[in-house]
UniProtKB/TrEMBL annotation:
GO MF terms held by the record: catalytic activity
InterPro entries per the UniProt record, alphabetical: AB_hydrolase_1, AB_hydrolase_fold
Protein name (database record): Pimeloyl-ACP methyl ester carboxylesterase
AB hydrolase-1 domain sequence ranges: 32-259
Length: 268
């Protein structure tokens, strides 16, 4: 992997594949390239027209971290990657809460962005599922501060991801549990990124009002019912957004579906 240094001194590790337009793929909560191969596989399929960056968000994988956390620091991480790519306008793609980070980056004006694509932003805008508790982030912070990352993972799994305590117990018996413990402090980062957008209320009208570039908002036709409302809600909010249902389930799709969707969106 290569690295860049973000504005606050944090080292951001990344891989870049292909030639052409800059595309940065942003993982959601708990994800990073070593455990999510979809980004790298998608990058290979797009390598003839895009230089695709897959990277470890701060605090995950081979990237370092610097306190205190702020969403602006993650936007600066993206700006450092764009600068590495030559500084031209970038296409941002984000899974889940990573898509919300992509929207925040485009709205910030801190880096040049030509297109934003998101897959299933996990907004809670109705009563299909319970809203996220108002003290969610505070409880994550408290668990990590107390040296109990397992409690932070459990809070995320049950209250944000919609799992059950039994699923948490099963995860504890898997090889993936140590990985989750290692990235537990970063779960609160995505909680801050989601903000009030999982409260069961309509999306904030002003948060992304400055976005005037094309936005593609996607969701899987066979995804979990609780995740279906988010993408349409975003498409309804943003005048430049296009809604695209795609084959897929369980909060993801395949590189063979995602790559042409991104190519068609950018080249339209």
């Amino acid at each position: 992997m290569s690295t860049v240094i973000s504005k606050d001194g944090t080292t951001i590790a990344f891989d870049a594949v292909g030639t052409g337009r800059t595309l940065i793929m942003i993982d959601g909560a708990t994800g990073y390239p070593a455990i999510n191969p979809l980004n790298a596989e998608t990058a290979k399929l797009l390598s003839d027209g895009f230089r695709t960056y897959t990277y470890d968000r701060r605090g995950r994988g081979n990237s370092t971290d610097t306190a205190p956390y702020a969403i602006e620091r993650e936007i600066e991480d993206l700006a450092a990657l764009v600068e590495d790519a030559g500084g031209g306008p970038a296409v941002l793609f984000g899974w889940s809460s990573g898509g919300v980070l992509a929207l925040d980056a485009a709205a910030s004006g801190l880096l040049p962005v030509s297109h934003v694509a998101v897959f299933e932003p996990p907004f809670v805008v109705d009563d299909v599922r319970p809203p996220l508790p108002a003290d969610y982030v505070e409880r994550l912070d408290a668990a990590n501060a107390a040296g109990d990352p397992g409690e932070a993972v459990a809070i995320f799994m049950v209250e944000a991801a919609g799992g059950t305590p039994e699923m948490v117990e099963g995860l504890k018996q898997s090889d993936f549990w140590p990985v989750m413990l290692g990235i537990a402090p970063t779960i609160a980062y995505d909680g801050r990124i989601m903000g009030t957008t999982m409260s069961g209320n309509p999306l904030p009208a002003d948060r992304w009002a400055s976005i005037d570039i094309p936005v593609l908002t996607m969701y899987g036709l066979d995804t979990w019912p609780a995740l279906k409302p988010g993408a349409p809600a975003l498409a309804e909010l943003l005048p430049t957004a296009t809604l695209k249902p795609v084959p897929g389930e369980n909060h993801a799709t395949t590189p063979e579906v995602l790559a042409p969707a991104l190519r068609d969106f950018v080249e339209a």
